[in-house]
Amino acid sequence: MKKTLKIVMLAMTASAVVATSAVAEDDIRLRLNWMYYGSHAGFAFGKDSGIYDKAGIDLDIRSGNGSSSAHRLVANGDSDFAYGSCGALINLASQGAEITSVAVIDAMGAEAVILRPDSGVSSVADLKGKTILTTANAGVNTFFPIVLANAGLTPDDVTITNVPDGALVSSYLQGSGGAVGILGGLDDKPAEIRANGGEDPVLLPYSDYGVDQVGYCISTRKEMIEENPDLVNRFVDATIQAYKQTEADPDAAVNAIADIVGGTMAEDQGKAHRG
């Protein structure tokens, strides 16, 4: 009887150890480049569907206020990974930040000059003497001087006005300060403009002006790669899996963002504009 009891107790102990190992996860903070929008759906779906859990990752997704800020928060240790403009990452790394890209989500850059249809501007050259709005930490700012140069202009030919985070589209719609447009991403800003009652904007992609670039990278600290390569691999693999499933079932991915964010994004109108 004692021998049987001992065996049962040993089995229970072993089961407890296995169970503890199974639920042990790495706590990871992901910093996004901006407030939630469609391109973030894969991360939300991966969290909501348990893909990251299966990879042993407890993912904390945080919104951001610009690609440069997102990558900088990784560099200073606030966040473990970031999703943001590769151009912004390159710019920070060139300044000595110990960060690098471990994956690319969007293979082509979506950066553009986005113009009010009543602005009378149809090319970058037409921006001479005009005002453009942006946000201080936006990755789209990085290569804008090159776009200007390729159109025969200098930064002094255009007035760049920074507006508060989250106020870019509303300021655009109001024509704040006589601005004719904004610097932003084709992956979210046109949809946000339409969602807020604006007409379809005039779009001048950077790629039309000789600035071809990789889109959005996942960055992490070089120290993370050196000290915990298994975690980096698990995060990247889970993210790739999540985005593949997002492509296959976009409605589920939109619902996942709604589940995580709540508020107006959980309403039908919010889902339609954010998907």
Description:
- With 275 residues, the protein is of the alpha/beta class.
- 43% of the residues lie in helices and 19% in strands.
- It is built from twelve helices and ten strands.
- A five-stranded mixed β-sheet has the order 2-1-3-10-4, sandwiched between helices.
- Helix 6 links the parallel strand 6 and strand 7 (159-162).
- Helix 2 crosses helix 10 and helix 10 crosses helix 11.
- The relative contact order is 0.18.
- Mean pLDDT is 86; it is low at 1-22.
Give the SSE layout.
Blueprint lengths: L1 H22 L2 E6 L9 H8 L2 H4 L2 E6 L4 H9 L5 E5 H9 L4 E8 L4 E5 L15 E4 L9 H7 L8 E4 L5 H7 L6 E5 L3 H7 L6 E4 L10 E6 H6 L1 H20 L1 H12 L6 H7 L1
Parallel strand pairs: 1-2, 1-3, 6-7, 6-8
Antiparallel strand pairs: 3-10, 4-10, 5-8, 5-9
Going by helix content, strand content and strand pairing, the class is alpha/beta
Summarize the helix and strand pattern as letters. HEHHEHEHEEEHEHEHEEHHHH
Widest sheet: strand ordering: 2-1-3-10-4
Count up the helices.
12
Estimate percent helicity: 40-55%
Strand content: 15-25%
**Unreliable stretches covering 5 or more consecutive residues:** 1-22
The pLDDT mean sits at 86
- What would you call the shape? globular
